[in-house]
Amino acid sequence: MEQYIVTGMSCAACQNRVEKAVSKVPGVKNVSVSLLTNSMGVEGTADDAAIIKAVENAGYGARRKGAPAAQSAQSEIAAEEDALKDRTTPVLKKRLIWSIVFLAALMYISMGHNMWNWPLPAWFVHNHMALAMTQMYLALIVMYINRKFFTSGFKSLIHGAPNMDILVALGSSVSFGWSLFVTYEIAGMYAQGADPASIMSVYHNELYYESAAMIPALITVGKLLEAMSKGRTTDALKSLLKLAPKKAVLMRNGQEVEVGIEEVQTGDVFVVKPGESIPVDGVIIEGSTAVDESALTGESIPVDKHVDDTVSAATINTSGFIKARATRVGEDTTLSQIIHMVSDAAATKAPIARIADKVSGIFVPAVIIIAAVVLVGWLLAGQTLPFALARAISVLVISCPCALGLATPVAIMVGNGMGAKNGILFKTSEALENAGRTQIIALDKTGTITTGKPAVTDVVAADGVSEDDLWQAAYALENHSEHPLAVAIREKAESDHVKLAEVSDFKALSGHGLQAVLDGKKLSGGSRKYISTVAEIPSALQKTSDELANQGKTPLFFARDGKLLGMIGVADTIKPDSAEAVNELKKLGIEVVMITGDNERTAKAIAAKADVDHVIAGVLPDGKEAEIRRLQKYGKVAMVGDGINDAPALTRADTGIAIGAGTDVAIDSADVVLMNSKLSDVAAAVRLSRATLRNIHENLFWAFFYNVICIPLAAGLYAWKMNPMVGAAAMSLSSFTVCMNALRLNLFNMHRTDRDHAMKNRVTLDDEIFREEKKDTDLDTDKEDNKMEKVLHVDGMMCEHCEARVKKALESVDGVVSATADHNAKKAVVELSKDVDNAVLKKAVEDQDYQVTGIE
Question: Which pTM was predicted?
Answer without folding.
Answer: 0.70
